[in-house]
């Protein structure tokens, strides 16, 4: 499936900003790490919403629903990213009136807090929230609309043609050859002080972090990526997966403590 997706990108048959989103493994890592840091109260209420499904199991649901022909799912594509044009700041960028990843975050949190929301509505919100917390910690989800978050920037990845967005969503994660549980075991070593620091940041802070990293990622050089690129950005990928999971746990613990 990943090979077919790569071919579609290469031949420009798919040009959608959210075509990739940490693919399967990355999102599952974020979900698994969050699960490990849930409070007892949050764990109980999440079980009431999701049943026996884990956060890792539902982490890719929002991407899977893109195959649903219902128009509402096509409209929901904007929930996976936030475009900030080159040379502009987040504060002076006109937001998409149809929504974006930041407005979606607020909407899903509000639904989970609502005493009037149905279980089905909360399930939808929780599954989507788990997913976009991964997206919000992948810098190309704050990319330029002009290149569709790096989807239109062709690069070489170990002598194969792909695009910059796919490198960050799929290949940097999968190059480690780890399952999502192995990734989680490897990363889950944050100290209490680090956890507190990660969770103190606000969603606006996350946007600014993503934009700062985006500038680094857009500096593609000769566009011929191999082990040197992996070595350079491996620490960033590891950091973002860990922080995304820790912050997701913090968000859920706060929601379900109320």
From TrEMBL:
A Pfam family that the UniProt record links to this protein: S1-P1_nuclease
Record-level Gene Ontology MF annotations: endonuclease activity; hydrolase activity, acting on ester bonds; metal ion binding; nucleic acid binding
InterPro entries the record matches: PLipase_C/P1_nuclease_dom_sf, S1/P1nuclease
Gene3D superfamilies xref list: P1 Nuclease
Keyword vocabulary terms for this entry: Disulfide bond, Endonuclease, Glycoprotein, Hydrolase, Metal-binding, Nuclease
GO terms under biological process: DNA catabolic process
Protein name as annotated: Endonuclease
Organism: hydrothermal vent metagenome
